[in-house]
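ok here's Dysbindin:
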Amino acid sequence: MLGNFRERLQTVQQDLTTGIKTLGDRSKDVKRKPRIHEFPPQFTAGLELLSRYEESWVLLHRRTKDCAQNAEALDGDAVMLSAHWERRRTAMSQMQEQIQVLPGFIDQLETVTGRIGNTFRRGL
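and the structure:
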């Protein structure tokens, strides 16, 4: 269970890192070049740029959503693991308390056994 927890945590971390790197790499590609000649504006160029950013944004949004879902699943696993170990700790504490009482119980049992033995010896 701990291996699965570690695996999911690494997956979330890798997805987040990849998304951030992708966004950073694509923003570097869009550097403005100096104009040598004055040209009339080309609106299609802006459309291409907008389209590329939109695609990047959709991809980043999808990956972020996937990362969030993985993080929620991981959080659920962590909560379950914590509850599991809390139950184990409680059981160990109860067992320890019972073990500490055991020597006194054995002494009482020996005393009762001795009294019963004495009672039968007297009766015979």
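+1. The radius of gyration is 36 Å.
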